[in-house]
């Protein structure tokens, strides 16, 4: 499944590899990978594959789950579709509380003690994901874990998740993507080592040479 999802993401350029002409992140880091999982929503075949895979992961790892909560904004649609497939309620967590109305940060009905699975589109350093988990915990939810579409597998992100006691299961990941990209001709075979060097230490630009 990891390879099938990686192949699908590459086919619609939801994940795009460009080791020769790297992208520049907001932090200034030069990156050979760009990820925009919102493109999944405009590709019906890939969307069906991804949403069913999310639903299957929920059933496999968290059969006791009572509600799905999407991360704002990219995780909301995926949580809604997966919840529909599972016949489950869903909601989402805002980046910050509203400054009007009821000042909600969590949208949708959530009872204290409910067992929640968070649906996230992408995990890099895991900061925003952990914020969502903390908001749900503060509201009294029992967060069972996170299902994400793609994870970079960055050391910082993995360490943050572990420290926060958050379990994540991704449909696909960076290492699998690089392997599939080489097999499918998106990158040259020799680029695999360069890409893995980047992920081992994104701030070290020696991978570009």
Structure description:
- 39% of the residues lie in helices and 22% in strands.
- The protein has helices at 2-11, 44-61, 74-86, 127-138, 155-163, 174-183, 191-200, and strands spanning 15-17, 23-24, 30-31, 33-35, 67-71, 90-93, 106-107, 115-123, 142-151, 168-173.
- The protein has a six-stranded mixed β-sheet, with helices on both faces. It has a two-stranded antiparallel sheet with strand order 1-4.
- β5 (67-71), α3 (74-86) and β6 (90-93) form a beta-alpha-beta unit.
- α1 crosses α6 (174-183), α2 crosses α3 (74-86) and α6 runs antiparallel to α7 (191-200).
- The relative contact order is 0.17.
- The mean pLDDT is 92.
In percent terms, what proportion of residues is strand?
Answer: 15-25%
The percent of residues in helical segments reads: 25-40%
Spatial strand arrangement across the major sheet: 7-6-5-8-9-10
Rg calculated over all Cα atoms: 17 Å
Count every beta strand, where a strand is a DSSP E run of 2 or more residues: 10
Describe the main β-sheet briefly: 6 strands, mixed
Global shape: globular
**Low-confidence runs:** none
Q: What is the assembly state of the chains in this entry?
A: single chain
Helix/sheet category: alpha/beta
Q: Could you state the order of secondary-structure elements as H and E?
A: HEEEEHEHEEEHEHEHH
Number of helical regions: 7
Overall pLDDT metric: 92
**Distance between the first and last residues' Cα:** 33 Å
Secondary structure layout plus pairing:
Blueprint: H1 2-11, E1 15-17, E2 23-24, E3 30-31, E4 33-35, H2 44-61, E5 67-71, H3 74-86, E6 90-93, E7 106-107, E8 115-123, H4 127-138, E9 142-151, H5 155-163, E10 168-173, H6 174-183, H7 191-200
Parallel strand pairs: 5-6, 5-8, 8-9, 9-10
Antiparallel strand pairs: 1-4, 2-3, 6-7
């Amino acid at each position: 499944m990891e390879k099938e999802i990686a192949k699908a993401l590459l086919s619609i350029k939801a994940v795009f590899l460009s080791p020769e002409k790297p992208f520049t992140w907001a932090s200034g880091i030069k990156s050979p990978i760009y990820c925009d999982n919102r493109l999944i929503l405009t590709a019906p075949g890939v969307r069906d594959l991804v949403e069913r895979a999310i639903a299957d992961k929920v059933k496999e790892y968290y059969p006791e789950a009572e509600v799905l909560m999407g991360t704002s904004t990219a995780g909301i649609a995926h949580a809604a579709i997966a919840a529909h497939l599972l016949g489950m309620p869903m909601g989402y967590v805002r980046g910050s509380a509203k400054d009007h109305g009821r000042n909600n940060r969590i949208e949708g009905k959530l009872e204290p003690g409910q067992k929640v699975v968070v649906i996230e589109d992408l995990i890099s350093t895991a900061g925003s994901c952990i914020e969502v988990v903390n908001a749900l915990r503060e509201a009294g939810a029992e967060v069972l874990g996170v299902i994400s579409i793609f994870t970079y597998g960055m050391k910082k992100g993995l360490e943050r998740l572990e420290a926060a006691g958050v379990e994540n299961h991704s449909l696909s990941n960076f290492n699998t993507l690089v392997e599939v990209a080489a097999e499918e001709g998106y990158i040259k075979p020799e680029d695999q080592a360069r890409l893995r060097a980047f992920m081992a230490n994104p701030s070290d630009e020696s991978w570009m040479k």
